[in-house]
């Protein structure tokens, strides 16, 4: 599928020069969640402006909003969610949206202001201390947090398909406090630990190296790979394809690997490495 997408992109590049030479500028609005996206998208926005494609980012305060805005035509594209969230949200709300491109995995890690290491946190739980861990409350990120906490040794899960939910918790050493994903960081000093999505951690200027436990990234599983999404009717739009192509390139790699080092695992870099390895 990715090779097909790449082939289609290559075909549409022939149209781009015509678009870039258009007298009138083309404006594309992209829905995002988190201030860090402003920096992450800036290099691509500058490149696209040279082709008369003007990208404007629209910030949303809640994960529940950008897909609705895209579906009703308020914005052109969005770039804030992973496959698991996209699949759940579009199915639940009957949105007619389609993934245009895979971008990266934003790490979800465990942070604590009370414990220096995950070993200290687990030891306190094993000693019988009542501990509270804040987790995102939306279904897919809650399930992702459960996997992370299970890998950290803080709870046990039964078998599940896709992402787990509360019914799959067999045993827990900590009490979970679900809150809006955007609020997890704000609870960090009030609880024993917090599971924080990388986009919000980055927006608050959190050092990823300050996490006490790190998520294991598996790019062979697309569930938590973030995407650029469009309305299904716009999947062949050459301008939107060009936006995705420029974003998924070296111009974004530089800022992702320097300014936000440690938060992102870039899909296009991984694919390029695999191609070189295959040769």
If you had to describe this structure to a student in words, what would you say it looks like?
- Helices cover 38% and strands 21% of the residues.
- It is built from 11 helices and 13 strands.
- It has helices at 2-12, 16-20, 36-49, 66-71, 83-93, 118-126, 139-151, 198-203, 238-247, 250-258, 267-278, and strands spanning 26-32, 53-59, 77-78, 97-102, 104-106, 108-111, 132-136, 155-157, 169-172, 175-179, 193-197, 227-231, 264-266.
- Strands 2-1-3-12-4 form a 5-stranded mixed sheet, sandwiched between helices. A 4-stranded mixed sheet has the order 6-11-7-10.
- Strand 1, helix 3 and strand 2 form a beta-alpha-beta unit.
- Helix 3 (36-49) packs antiparallel against helix 10.
- The longest helix has 14 residues, at 36-49.
- The relative contact order is 0.19.
Compile the SSE list and pairings.
Blueprint: H1 2-12, H2 16-20, E1 26-32, H3 36-49, E2 53-59, H4 66-71, E3 77-78, H5 83-93, E4 97-102, E5 104-106, E6 108-111, H6 118-126, E7 132-136, H7 139-151, E8 155-157, E9 169-172, E10 175-179, E11 193-197, H8 198-203, E12 227-231, H9 238-247, H10 250-258, E13 264-266, H11 267-278
Parallel strand pairs: 1-2, 1-3, 7-10, 7-11
Antiparallel strand pairs: 3-12, 4-12, 5-13, 6-11, 8-9
Helix pairs in contact: 3-9, 3-10
